[in-house]
Write a structure and sequence with these properties.
The structure is a single chain. By secondary structure, the chain is α/β, with parallel strands linked by helices. The protein has a domain of 61 residues. Helix content is 37%, strand content 25%. The strands form two sheets. The chain has a six-stranded mixed β-sheet with strand order 6-7-8-3-9-10, with helices on both faces. A four-stranded antiparallel β-sheet has the order 2-1-4-5, covered by helices on one side. A hairpin with a 2-residue loop joins strand 1 and strand 2. It is globular and about 45 Å long.
């Protein structure tokens, strides 16, 4: 058995979850191998963000098991999952708007690692190096997204959940975001990504799941998806 894959992969088994008495996900099985990129696609309201929140611990499943690194983390709090190497980059930036760029990065880095993280992030996104003393909320939407994406470098995560990283961005910034995601994947992290740019996500991924109404209607490779009528029924074109 490949120990590194067992150690670093995500596995969902029979997951059912939602909000209060409303069930969103039903009997979900999903695997993200270590060092791989998996795309999670589907129409609006399909349950994609709920699935990511269930993995990160923001939503507690009513049934099923979440395993990370071979361990059952179903009942662990979000903070403990982060310590184990799980990073969730949510839709809507996920930054502290009233703090400077430098302060945002320092909070992500923790004590004694600020300089290292700032150096890595500004190398990946040079514009952030020019904005270190600027209040994060006063930057452009694209620059705020870059700052949010920089969380992927904090604590060298093993698994990164990315929810609509390119939402509302200009094409040139979308290019930069996807270049960064490729770089992070090449450095060994596993990625589970939700994104509106379907062709970009498929180009990045080695495996894809398509969700509709809280259930998977397809799982396979990007090549298999493009030959399946599921693509036209649930995804169309971007």
């Amino acid at each position: 058995m490949n120990t590194s894959v067992e150690t670093n992969s995500l596995e969902l088994v029979g997951i059912t979850s939602g909000y209060g008495t409303t069930t969103i996900l039903r009997n979900i099985d999903l695997t993200v191998p270590a060092g791989s990129v998996t795309a999670l696609l589907g129409p609006n309201g399909a349950g994609k963000s709920t699935l990511l929140k269930t993995v990160s611990g923001l939503v507690r499943p009513t049934r099923g098991v979440v395993r990370f690194g071979g361990d059952d983390i179903t009942k662990l709090p979000t903070s403990e999952r982060a310590k184990r190497g799980l990073c969730h980059i949510p839709e809507g930036r996920g930054i502290f708007r009233h703090l400077t760029v430098r302060e945002n990065l320092q909070l992500q880095a923790g004590p004694h690692h600020e300089d290292e993280l700032i150096e890595r992030c500004t190398a990946a996104f040079p514009i952030l190096g020019q904005r270190l003393n600027q209040r994060a909320g006063s930057m452009s939407g694209g620059q705020q997204q870059m700052l949010s994406m920089a969380r992927a470098y904090a604590h060298n995560p093993k698994l990164i959940l990315v929810d609509e990283a390119s939402l509302g961005l200009a094409p040139i910034l979308v290019d930069e975001i996807f270049r960064f995601l490729r770089q992070v994947a090449d450095e060994g992290a596993a990625l589970l990504i939700v994104d509106q740019f379907i062709t970009r996500a498929l180009a990045l991924a080695s495996r894809v799941y398509v969700m509709n109404r809280g259930e998977f209607v397809f799982s396979g490779t990007p090549g298999e998806l493009e030959k399946d009528d599921v693509f036209n029924r649930y995804l169309g074109s971007d």
